[in-house]
Write a structure and sequence with these properties.
The complex is a heterodimer of chains A (369) and B (324).
Chain A: H1 3-18, H2 21-43, E1 49-55, H3 60-71, E2 75-80, H4 84-93, E3 98-102, H5 106-112, E4 117-122, H6 126-135, E5 160-165, H7 173-203, H8 205-210, H9 216-246, H10 254-278, H11 282-299, H12 311-319, H13 321-334, H14 343-363
Helix pairs in contact in A: 1-9, 2-7, 2-9, 7-9, 7-10, 7-11, 7-13, 9-10, 10-13, 10-14, 13-14
Chain B: E1 11-22, E2 25-36, E3 40-44, H1 51-59, E4 66-71, E5 74-76, H2 80-83, E6 87-90, H3 102-112, H4 117-130, H5 146-158, E7 164-168, H6 176-191, E8 195-200, H7 203-208, E9 211-216, E10 219-224, H8 226-231, E11 237-242, H9 245-252, E12 258-264, E13 267-272, H10 278-292, E14 296-300, H11 305-313
Parallel strand pairs in B: 3-8, 3-9, 6-7, 7-8
Antiparallel strand pairs in B: 1-2, 1-4, 4-5, 9-10, 11-13, 11-14, 12-13
Helix pairs in contact in B: 3-4, 3-5
The chains are: A alpha/beta (369), B alpha/beta (324).
Bound molecules: adenosine-5'-triphosphate (ATP) and magnesium ion.
């Protein structure tokens, strides 16, 4: 391996990228768009969810509370009931997404500072879940609501308690953004490298390149190096926007976040290279990227809780780099864990990279047939 | 240029029984080639005759389906990697980077071809001057015109001073002036000892090669010096001078033993078939003309490479071509 040749490939790639406005735009555009779409779709973009109301107290204060909740516009009254059980049945039938229960001892509870009302949520729909958090923040006259209304499966200390069925984990932007780093990196890194090599085939540059002393390893490593920097840039964009728009915390070390992201980046770049040795056109490279991307999104634990998946899906998920990254990054960003504590995930990502890279370099032939 | 004659080999390329098929399609069929060192060797053939495929096999970029190749004393494809730094290859399709400037392309190729770092700047400057790129060195390669692109391709292909240069139809999209210029450069390189194998389907280019091989549908149908090849056709080319070339042309359609009849200005150029006796063909032509009462003057003329090309690539069983 000659460093000069490797570096020549890297600088060439950077120069080309600098002159390619579309790719440059995608590097920043994809994270921004995805973050905004995922973040808001899950958090606040919910409107007019069918709500069932069981006001068992029926005092002027309880009616005022219900009106306040409806005034948020996130729920619209769809049915009324007498008991929480009736509301639960309606949720089960899918007739309503949210049930609001005001118990008979509402006035007493208000006086004692205990939770005065209960919001029942169809947790099978993540969008509906976010609604509960909003409703729970509606201030109750005379009570002292917890302004943070922490989202837990145990009843919070706020004025209104939230009970979530089917999905006790209760996701929110805070939970989504760390995973989103992984999703965005998986999509862009695999695609960029896949395309970067296939494009040289399509434009005819490859025939010139393989007729020179350049080795497969020099070509492949030289080509992906710039994308490590680009991936880290994307991570920075997501972290900054996540903090600014959704107040997503980084509880662990920032360096750990970047190291974890770096591991996922190289894993995906290696996968992209492998794809590039198979794909014959940029379109095929895109298709193959999707072939990896969809299972990653569905199985990695990003959208659905890992524990709830069937065994086979879990095994499959263990092969995907995104699964390990999501565990790693949630640990670092949300629980403040260090990388050393999660060394198995680190090892899994490193191992994946090594195997993919080795296979890609072996598969790449300096030949046209 | 300081390219030295290849050390110890006077045959740059030797191929025996070379063959390549893509699935059922036979692209190259049992081709034997011997290219002497230090010469400009032409590779002539119509579209799809297997020129590019052969060159790619000689470079080690395609695996031959059959046959043996030895290039600069190395066995290809087994020792192809060792060959890379000693040959230059200019692809048929422009293969440099459209979105890099002329200078950036040269610097890139210099780096991957292993030109010493200390020498690179001087070598790039030298080539920029030699190929007259001084005031275009910052221009993006994709915005160059056809002739300039080809020049850049040549400059990049020779940057590491290869002993052997493969050029695949380097001038097919280039105007005559630029083409002359390009060939000037080729002879400069050949003078300095570089062996050049250049494919083309242009007769004036073929004429300038030291030797050439003609390929037709994957088969090697002729090879030798241009003079030898033309000389081999002696007697088979006839010139028909007439005031009514279109009508004479029609009259000649039925005559047996004619390989091709083409109109050139107001004259017709006739090539007689391989097996046919030229004298008999001449009599047949005169008889045919006599029947129709057309006045024409038939004389034997020297054959040129175009005749060689037609004779080599036209299957005798096909009817003579009628000029459009
Ligand atoms: N990779 C390939 N797969 C299938 N067929 C191929 C491939 N490459 C070449 N061929 C076929 O092999 C034959 C010879 O092609 P080749 O490109 O060598 O011809 P050529 O003499 O270079 O023609 P041209 O003057 O048009 O460049 C053609 O019929 C072509 O379609
Ligand atoms: Mg060709």
């Amino acid at each position: 391996m000659k460093w000069r040749r490797l570096w020549a490939i890297t600088t060439k790639e950077l120069r080309q990228l600098r002159r390619d406005r579309v790719s440059l735009g995608m590097i920043v555009g994809i994270p921004v768009i995805q973050l905004v779409l995922f973040g808001y779709a899950i958090n606040t973009n919910v409107r007019d969810i069918a709500a069932g109301i069981a006001d068992q107290a029926n005092t002027s204060a309880s009616r005022a509370l219900v009106m306040d909740m409806l005034a948020t516009d996130v729920v619209a009254p769809a049915a009324s009931a007498n008991t929480p059980q009736q509301l639960m049945e309606m949720i089960q039938r899918g007739q309503i997404g949210v049930g609001i229960v005001i118990p008979p001892d509402f006035e007493q509870r208000r006086h004692d500072g205990r939770p005065v009302a209960q919001v029942l949520v169809d947790g099978s729909d993540t969008a509906v879940q976010a609604v509960a958090a909003q409703l729970a923040q509606v201030p109750v006259d005379g009570a002292a609501p917890d302004p943070r209304a922490p989202a837990r499966s145990t009843p919070p200390e706020g004025a209104i308690s939230v009970v979530s069925f089917y999905n006790p984990e209760r996701r929110s932007a805070v939970n989504v953004v760390p995973g989103l780093i992984g999703v965005i990196l998986t999509m862009t890194m695999v695609m960029f490298t896949g395309i970067a090599i296939v494009r040289e085939h399509e434009r005819g540059n490859m025939e010139m390149l393989i007729a020179t002393p350049l080795t497969s390893a020099e070509l492949m490593i030289g080509k992906v190096l710039p994308y490590i920097g680009i991936g880290l840039l994307q991570v920075s964009v997501i972290l900054a926007l996540g903090r600014w728009l959704f107040a997503v915390p980084v509880r662990g070390g920032l360096l750990d976040v970047y190291v974890a992201a770096g591991l996922l980046i190289v894993a995906n770049l290696a996968l992209g290279l492998l794809i590039s040795t198979r794909a014959r056109s940029q379109f095929q490279a895109m298709q193959m990227t999707m072939f990896v991307f969809l299972p990653s999104i569905l199985l990695s634990g990003f959208l659905f809780p890992f524990a709830g998946m069937p065994k086979v899906a879990q095994w499959l998920a263990e092969v995907l780099p995104l699964t390990h990254f999501i565990r790693l990054i949630r640990g670092v960003m949300l629980r403040g864990a260090g990388l050393a504590q999660q060394w198995t995930e680190v090892a899994a990502l490193a191992g994946f990279t090594f195997v993919m890279m080795a296979v890609a370099i072996r598969r790449f032939r300096k030949r046209l047939d | 240029m300081s390219a030295r004659p290849p050390s110890g080999v006077d045959t740059a390329i030797r191929a025996r029984g070379l063959g390549k098929h893509f699935g059922g399609l036979v692209a190259v069929d049992r081709v034997d080639l011997t290219v002497p060192a230090g010469q400009v060797y032409g590779f002539l053939g119509p579209n799809g005759s297997g020129k590019s495929t052969t060159i790619r096999m000689l470079c080690g970029l395609l695996l031959p389906s059959a046959g043996e190749i030895e290039v600069l004393g190395l066995e290809v494809p087994r020792q192809a990697e060792a060959l890379r730094s000693r040959v230059g290859y200019m692809t048929q399709k422009f293969s440099l980077f459209d979105d890099l400037s002329v200078r950036e392309n040269l610097e890139f190729v210099a780096a991957i071809q292993g030109v010493a770092q200390a020498e690179t700047a001087a070598r790039v400057d030298e080539l920029l001057a030699r190929y007259r790129f001084e005031d275009r060195e910052r221009q993006l390669a994709g915005t160059l015109s056809g002739g300039w692109k080809q020049r850049l391709g040549l400059a990049c292909a020779v940057i590491h001073r290869p002993e052997l240069l493969f050029l695949d139809e380097p001038t097919s999209a280039v105007d005559p002036e630029s083409r002359r210029d390009f060939w000037e450069k080729l002879f400069e390189l050949a003078d300095a000892g570089t062996t050049i194998m250049v494919s083309t389907h242009l007769m004036d280019e073929a004429e300038r090669c030291h030797r050439l091989a003609i390929l037709d549908r994957g088969r090697l149908v002729a090879d030798g010096t241009p003079a030898q090849l033309a000389g081999a056709l002696a007697g088979r080319t006839l010139l028909v001078e007439t005031a009514t070339p279109r009508r004479v042309l029609e009259a000649l359609v039925g005559v047996a033993g004619l390989l091709s009849v083409v109109q050139i200005g107001s004259n017709l150029r006739v090539l007689t078939g391989d097996g046919a006796d030229p004298r008999r063909a001449l009599r047949d032509i005169e008889a045919a003309l006599g029947e129709t009462g057309l006045a024409a003057d038939v004389t034997e003329v020297a054959s040129n490479l175009e005749d060689v090309f037609v004779a080599a690539t036209r299957n005798g069983s096909r009817p003579p071509e009628r000029a459009p």
